[in-house]
Design a protein that fits this description.
Keywords: ATP-binding, Nucleotide-binding
CATH class of the largest domain: Mainly Alpha
Number of strands: 10
Low-confidence stretches: 4-11
Number of domains: 2
Organism: Strongyloides papillosus (Intestinal threadworm)
Order of helices and strands: HEEEEHEEHHEEEEHHHHH
Pfam families: Pkinase (PF00069)
GO molecular function, one term: protein kinase activity
Helix content: 25-40%
CATH topology of the largest domain: Transferase(Phosphotransferase), domain 1
Largest sheet: 6 strands, antiparallel
Number of helices: 9
Protein name: Protein kinase domain-containing protein
CATH superfamily of the largest domain: Transferase(Phosphotransferase) domain 1
Distance between the termini: 22 Å
Mean pLDDT: 93
C-alpha cells in the first residue's frame, strides 16, 4: 500500500497519540489501527480494520491546529466526492468510505492500494518497463489526469510515486493519489481564476512544468507537461537529461534544451513522433483547454507504428 503524503515529517506528539491497536470511532464506523503505512507534511496514512465488516482500509489522518487553518484533506474529500460519479469499472481514483473531523485531526477512510509506479519500475528487470507496459501505464496515468481536469481540479504534483495500482484483481488499474497540492481552478462565477502574478514553486523539480519553474500560475497544461516528462522515463532505455540535477535553474535549462535535443533521448527513432506532445503542450496558455484526444492519437499512433500491443499484461501481473 502506498498512499503518498508530503515529504515533511508530522508533529511527533500527534503520531504518538495514534498508536497501534488504537480504536477510532466515527458516526459511520469503528476502526482499529493496524500499522503506519506512510507519513508526511500534512498527514499520516494507516492500515486499519473496520469493526463492522473486518475489512482492511487505508485511513489518512491530518492534524488540525491553529497554525493549520486550511486542512489539505478538505480538498482531497472534495475531489473524491466529485470523482465518485465516475463508473467504478473505469475509475482511476480510490473510493472514499468514511470521513470525520475530530478535535485535533480530521480523517478519511478509503480503498487500500498496492505499490506505486516508481517502486514497480524499480523491481522490473534492468529497472525498466516493457514497451507495452510503458505505454499502457502512461495512457492510464493520462486518463486519470484528464478525469481530474473534467472536475476543474489540477494536481500540481504529477510523478510516479503519486500513481499506485490496485490490489489483487485490480492490480492492472492505475490510480492517481495524493491531492495535497491540488487546486480548484474556477472562481465563484464558474470562470477560470485570474492567474496570480507570482506563485511559489510547488511540486517535484524533476517533473515540474517550465511555467512552474518560472513562478507562473499552473493550469491543466502544466499537469500534462509533467506527465510527458514522467512518460519519457517509463520508456525503455530512456532517462531525463536532468535526472541528477537539483537546482531549479539548471533543470529548467535542460527542459528548455529538450525541445531541440529530443532525438538524443533515445538510441533509436521509434519514439521520435512523441516530440509532438511537447510541441503541442508548448502552444497552450494557462487557461487553454487540453485536447486529450490529440494526445491519445499521438501515443496510439506511435504504438501502432511500432507494433506495441497495448493489451499485453502489465509486467508485474505476469507470474514468473
Amino acid at each position: 500500500m502506498n498512499l503518498s503524503v508530503s515529504s515533511t515529517t508530522c508533529n511527533g506528539n500527534f503520531r504518538e497519540d495514534l498508536k497501534i491497536n488504537k480504536t477510532i470511532k466515527t458516526k459511520r464506523g469503528t476502526y482499529t489501527i493496524d500499522k503506519l503505512l506512510g507519513e508526511g507534511g500534512y498527514g499520516l496514512v494507516y492500515l486499519v480494520t473496520s469493526k463492522k465488516d473486518q475489512q482492511k482500509y487505508a485511513m489518512k489522518i491530518e492534524r488540525v491546529s491553529k497554525e493549520r487553518t486550511s486542512p489539505k484533506l478538505k480538498v482531497e474529500v472534495s475531489i473524491l466526492k466529485k470523482v465518485s460519479s465516475i463508473d467504478r469499472e473505469r475509475s482511476h481514483f480510490v473510493k472514499m468510505y468514511d470521513r470525520c473531523k475530530k478535535k485535533d485531526y480530521c480523517l478519511i477512510v478509503m480503498d487500500l492500494l498496492g505499490p506505486n509506479i516508481f517502486d514497480l519500475k524499480r523491481k522490473c528487470r534492468n529497472l525498466e518497463f516493457s514497451e507495452s507496459t510503458s505505454f499502457n501505464v502512461g495512457i492510464q496515468c493520462l486518463e486519470s489526469i484528464e478525469d481530474l481536469h473534467k472536475f476543474n481540479f489540477i494536481h500540481r504534483d504529477i510523478k510516479p510515486t503519486n500513481f499506485s495500482v490496485g490490489t489483487e484483481c485490480k492490480n492492472n488499474i492505475v490510480y492517481l493519489i495524493d491531492f495535497g497540492l491540488a487546486r480548484y481552478i474556477l472562481n465563484g462565477k464558474g470562470d477560470i481564476k485570474t492567474p496570480r502574478e507570482i506563485c511559489k514553486f510547488k511540486g517535484t523539480i524533476r517533473y515540474a512544468s517550465r511555467a512552474t519553474h518560472k513562478g507562473l500560475e499552473n493550469g491543466k497544461k502544466d499537469d500534462v507537461e509533467a506527465w510527458i516528462y514522467m512518460f519519457v522515463e517509463f520508456l525503455p532505455s530512456s532517462h531525463l537529461p536532468w535526472r541528477t540535477l537539483n537546482r531549479l535553474e539548471d533543470v529548467l535549462l535542460k527542459k528548455n534544451m529538450l525541445r531541440v535535443e529530443w532525438p538524443k533521448l533515445f538510441n533509436h527513432s521509434r519514439y521520435m513522433k512523441l516530440q509532438l506532445l511537447l510541441d503541442y503542450i508548448d502552444t497552450l496558455s494557462y487557461a487553454h483547454p487540453v485536447d486529450y484526444n490529440f494526445i491519445y492519437s499521438i501515443i496510439n499512433g506511435v504504438a501502432e507504428d511500432n507494433n506495441i500491443d497495448l493489451t499485453s499484461p502489465l509486467d508485474w501481473t505476469i507470474k514468473k
